[in-house]
Every structure is written in C-alpha cells, then in structure tokens.
Design goal:
- The protein is an alpha/beta fold.
- It is built from 21 helices and 19 strands.
- Strand 8 and strand 9 form a beta hairpin.
- The protein is globular and about 70 Å long.
- The structure holds cobalamin (B12) and iron/sulfur cluster (SF4).
- Cobalamin binds next to helix 2, strand 5, strand 6, helix 5 and helix 7.
Length: 555
C-alpha cells in the first residue's frame, strides 16, 4: 500500500518478520558513530571526503562524532561483514555508514550482525553505494533505519532534527522507517552554495595514516554517459565552489597537513574551461607550488589548456576513454569523436607526467569489430607508455546507470575467466564470500554491479586481452635475464622502452609491454608513493588492484 502524497509505504509483512526493527525514534541523541567503509586501492590511503563532510555538519549540530575509517584496518576486506562488524564494536546508539557499490553487501552483512547484538541500534546509510537502492534496502533489510540519497549535508541535518523531535517529516533526500512505515521524502534540491558548507572535518583524522590528499571543487556532471551513474547521483547539474575557497583549502592541506600533492576528484574537472584557466592563473599568481591531478575529458582538452594546467602544477590526468569504436561511443552518449582521442593523448603526454587511459569492454551492443577498435586504440595509447597507462575493465552495470536500466534482463554472473577484468571485486566467484554471494543473488537489482552483461564474442575478446597479459608477464620476466630490461627497474631509459615497444607488432602485445613499462616506473618510484596524483604502488595489472582480489590474481 502506498500514499503518493506523503511518499509513505507500509511494510507490515516485513515488520511481522522483523518485529524487533526500529519503529520509533531515540529520545535523545548526543553522539554518533560515523564510519567510512570505502576501501582504498593500490596501497594508497585517501581521506574519505564524503563522510568527512557529513561529520563536519553533524559536529556543527553539537553531536560528538566517533569517526572510523575502515580502510585503515590492516584486516579490512569486503568478502563478508565480519571484519567491518568487529571494527564497529563499541559503537554508539546511532551508526552511520558510507560506502560505494563495491562494499554495499559487506555493509549490509555487518549491520545485520550488529543488529543481532544490539537491536536498538539506529543504522543510517549514505554515499553512492546505497543511494541507488534506498527504498529497496529498507524493504529488504528493515533493521536499517534510513538511507540518504546523494548529497548528504542538509538531509542528515534534518534527519537529526527529526530524531530529536525538532522537525517533522517527510525528509527530502532520504527514505526512512518511522512508526512501522517507510517514508520517502522525494528529491532534495541541490545545494547551490557550496562555499557555505563547513570544510570536511579534517581534524578528526590522523593525517600520518594517509598517503594522498583529495579535494572536490565541483559537484555533479552535465554529461550523460549511459554506463555512469553520476548524473543520477547528483542530478544533471554541476555546482561549483569558488576558486578562492578551493585554492585556500589546497594551501591549507599543504601548510597544515604537509600534503603538497592533491587529487581533485570532481567528476569532470575541465567541464568549465574558463574556470580551469582562471584556477591555473590563480595558482600561478599565488605561487602555490602544489602538484595536482584531475579527471579530464577528451572533447574538452586543447593544447593551450593542457599547457597551462601543466604549468600550474597539474601532473596527472585521468581520461575515461571507454571505447575506440565510434558506434559504441555514440550509443553510450559519450559525445567524443574517436579520431580526437590519440591527438589529445599525445599532447597531454607531452605535458603531464602521468595519464590514466581507462577503457571499458563488454557492452551488450559491442561487436567483435567494435572491441578490436578499442584494442587498436589502447595499443596506440600504449606507445606513450609509461606516461600513459591503459586500464581495461569489463562493464559493471551500476544500479542507477541508464545502461543497466535499459538492459536489466542481460545481467550475467561473471565466469571464472572474467575475474581479472571485473571492476568490482569478484564476490560472485569467490569461495570466501559465500554469505555475501547469497545476499547478491537474492537481490540482483540492488547489486547489479557484481554482474556483467551478455556481450557478443565474449570469449574471443577475452582471448585477445589474455594475450596482452602474457606479453606483460613476459616483459616483466625478461628483467631476470635481459640486462637492458632490468635497467628499467632502476632508472629511466627511454631508448630501452622504445625498443621494447617497437619489437611488438600485435596490438595486444604492445598493450602488455606498455603495462610492464608502467610497472617498471612504479618500481623505480616505490620509495616515493603518492608523489604523483593517481600513481600508487599497484602491481603489474590491467585493472586496478584491490585487497580482496590480490590474493588470487594471476600476477
Ligand atoms: C576518490 C574516489 C575513489 C577513491 C576513494 C578514496 C576514498 N577513500 O574516498 C578510490 C580511488 C579508492 C575509488 C575507488 C573506487 N571507486 Co571511486 N570515486 C572516487 C570519486 C572520484 C570521488 C569520491 C569523493 O570524494 N567525492 C566527493 C564527496 C563529497 O562525495 P560523496 O563521497 O558522494 O559524498 C556525499 C554523498 O554521497 C553523501 N554521503 C557520503 N557518505 C555519506 C555517509 C552518510 C552517513 C550520509 C548520510 C551521507 C553520505 O554526502 C556526501 C556529501 O554531500 C568518485 C566520483 C565523485 N566525484 O564523487 C568516484 C566514485 C565514488 N567511485 C566509484 C566507483 C565505482 C569506485 C570503485 C568501486 C571502482 C573504481 N571506479 O575503481 C572503486 C571501489 C573502491 C575500492 N574498494 O577500491 C563510483 C561509485 C559508484 C557507486 N554508485 O557506488 C563513483 C561515483 C565514480 C563513478 N561514477 O564511477 N574511488
Ligand atoms: S562518465 Fe564522466 S563525463 Fe560521463 S557522465 Fe560520468 S562523470 Fe560525466
């Protein structure tokens, strides 16, 4: 039964089963346990910005925040909820958890365990992971009291007022249980005054435990790439912070916390090119001497913009290239011309130290020919290794992405051979994650990202990629008997790199050699991790490495 005027939905059946679930509000709330359950990657640790923004507004409301960052736990993993539940021991009566899609099953499992131990606990979830399936999560796991969708500061403030009995519902921007019913407060309008928000609660973290600093200067993206969920998470609108506030925060990270290399995590930092130019000019005028990196976009880059960015300290850039086939680029609404990609990579490689070129394969409409075009482009990009580093991962159907909404019937469990190409951890393949596997299989609509899509000629595509991996292994192995190759483990030597690349005639082999060159460079710089934005300590792999997969990976 549902009442569309109030957004109210009654779930008596569920309450019948979970008679112990939260049906009222705690009388007083003075403190809150706030946990970031996002794991880092590549041996890097970065302050979790979203939860720290939430912590700052919660503190402003006079609550004590017990902040916990799960990625700092040596035993952290997402194969079950055990480790997270143990990490949350001795929590306060209200527990708020943030995660991305990859950790959502572990978070749900952990809350289930904690709920059994202390049924009166109030659980609130937020972040990109639970946002997509807010209402479904409450229906399916009714021990969770509320899920905040998207931008969280104003919503969480109102929710706390609601718990305290100071404001009534429904609360826009979230779904929540109250008096035995689920309420959906509908959309909350975006915060257009980002400068008025308190800075992330940086004082709650121990900076010595973090290798990198990050900031966000723009929230949202105005493109609509169909495999991405950013537009659905933030709305199709980009909201900017002022440049002065942005640069002041970067300088504060440098001066107070000693971080002179900062990653800018805006979904597409270069959306407004005039703003980027002004940003660069301000950094130069203020002699900030901060190294930074950002997410670019092929169709927005020009040689003069790239030069100015490099001059102003930009050392690394991430390009979501996503396909080399115009057909796929058009069908995914990328708004990029395939012929522009290599020129942009070339002039970018002449200015930046590090470029991540990320490709996706496994689209439902990607023919073998489309895939070969992607591979050819990745092969050309690899000739710019080790500056350009190619990533090649299978499409992960994110729950809010238009492509998943279009093809939900094409979800397919990954095959064991897909393992090394998956974007999210291979939970459906992993013997160690049996509980979580059941959670996912029981509600694929909540966790579609752990599946793949049916895609034409999948085996042939995989075989070509396996060839790239063999070339990577071979090149790394060469360092054992080839003194020229071994030299690359110790020092930069462009002629040796060129020779290794030139010896390969098949695109897949060239990709493998390019990846090996990237690996050698990381080995040369291993004493200085975090010196370059986006550069970590990851091994020689074609997709990003995560703790859970490392143990079973082929390299
Ligand atoms: C930095 C980053 C990372 C870092 C994380 C570092 C860290 N410790 O935080 C690294 C590189 C590790 C990473 C990895 C991954 N990432 Co990532 N990442 C980002 C990025 C670029 C910025 C995150 C950020 O800081 N945002 C700024 C803050 C302010 O926004 P926010 O976190 O969303 O927080 C707001 C709300 O969500 C909400 N909120 C957040 N937490 C909470 C908690 C509570 C209690 C409440 C009430 C509200 C709330 O309020 C906040 C303020 O308004 C985003 C894209 C983006 N621009 O957001 C992608 C993004 C979050 N990543 C994404 C993905 C898919 C991943 C990966 C799973 C795969 C991948 N891309 O490699 C891995 C998984 C992590 C892992 N195990 O390795 C997706 C998430 C999709 C989804 N629906 O979950 C995003 C959105 C990018 C995308 N569209 O592909 N990522
Ligand atoms: S992939 Fe990048 S450019 Fe496309 S919608 Fe997502 S954030 Fe925007």
């Amino acid at each position: 039964m549902s009442d569309s005027s109030t957004g109210e939905v009654s779930c008596r059946n569920q309450l019948g089963v979970f008679s112990h679930v939260f049906v009222g509000r705690p009388r007083s709330i003075r403190s809150i346990t706030l946990c970031s359950a996002t794991l880092g990657e590549d041996g890097k640790t970065e302050p979790p910005l979203g939860p720290l923004y939430i912590a700052a507004v919660v503190e402003r409301l006079g609550l004590e925040v017990d902040f916990r960052d799960f990625q700092l736990q040596p035993a952290a993993h997402g194969l079950s909820g055990d480790a997270l539940a143990a990490f949350l021991a001795d929590h306060h009566a209200v527990v708020a958890i943030s995660c991305f899609v990859d950790m959502l099953p572990a978070v749900i499992d952990a809350t289930r365990m904690l709920h059994r131990q202390r049924p009166e606990t109030v659980f609130l979830l937020g972040g990109p992971g639970p946002t997509a399936s807010a209402r479904r999560i409450l229906e399916k796991y009714p021990w969770i009291h509320g899920v905040v969708r998207g931008e969280g500061e104003e919503t969480v403030s109102q929710w706390i007022g609601f718990l305290r009995g100071q404001v009534g519902g429904p609360i826009p921007g979230m779904c929540y249980w109250d008096q035995g019913k689920i309420y959906d407060g509908g959309e909350r309008s975006r915060n257009l005054a980002l400068d008025s928000l308190p800075l992330p609660a940086y004082e709650l973290i121990d900076w010595s435990q973090y290798t990198q600093a990050r900031i966000i200067t723009t929230r949202g993206c105005s493109y609509r790439c169909s495999f991405c969920d950013v537009t659905q998470l933030w709305g199709n609108r980009s909201v900017y912070r002022s440049l002065d506030a942005t640069i002041t925060e970067m300088e504060m990270l440098r001066d107070r916390y000693g971080k002179s290399c900062v990653g800018i995590v805006d979904d597409t930092f270069v959306l407004n090119r005039e703003r980027v130019r002004q940003f660069c000019r301000m950094l130069l005028e203020r002699r900030s001497s901060i190294a930074w990196g950002c997410f670019g976009r092929i169709n927005l880059m020009t040689p003069d913009l790239v030069e100015l960015m490099a001059k102003a300290g930009c050392r690394g850039i991430f390009y979501g290239i996503d396909s080399g086939s115009q057909n796929v680029l058009d069908r995914t609404l990328k708004k990029v011309r395939a012929e522009h990609i290599m020129p942009v990579l070339r002039f970018s490689a002449s200015c930046f130290d590090r470029i991540e070129a990320s490709f996706i394969w496994g689209y439902p409409f990607e023919s073998l020919r489309d895939f070969q075009k992607t591979l050819e482009l990745a092969g050309q990009a690899s000739t710019l290794a080790p500056i350009v580093s190619v990533q090649m991962h299978m499409l992960s159907p994110l729950p809010l992405s238009p492509i998943y909404r279009q093809y939900p019937q094409l979800l397919l469990e990954p095959e064991p051979e897909d393992r090394q190409w998956l974007l999210l951890p291979a939970l459906l393949l992993d013997e160690r994650s049996s509980v979580i596997r059941d959670l996912i299989r029981d509600a694929p609509d909540i966790y579609p990202g752990f599946y793949t899509f049916q895609t034409p000629a999948k085996r042939k595509k995989r075989k070509l990629l396996e060839r790239a991996m063999r070339a990577l292994n071979r090149t790394v192995g060469r360092t054992l008997f080839d003194s020229a190759a071994a030299r690359l483990l110790r020092e930069d030597c462009r002629p040796v790199e060129r020779k290794l690349l030139a010896a390969e005639h098949h695109v897949a082999d060239r990709i493998g050699v390019g990846l090996a060159l990237g690996f050698f460079r990381r080995v040369r710089r291993r004493d200085n991790p975090g010196a370059l934005p986006f550069e970590g300590t990851r091994g020689p792999r074609i997709v990003r490495e995560r703790a859970e997969t490392a143990e079973t990976s082929s390299l």
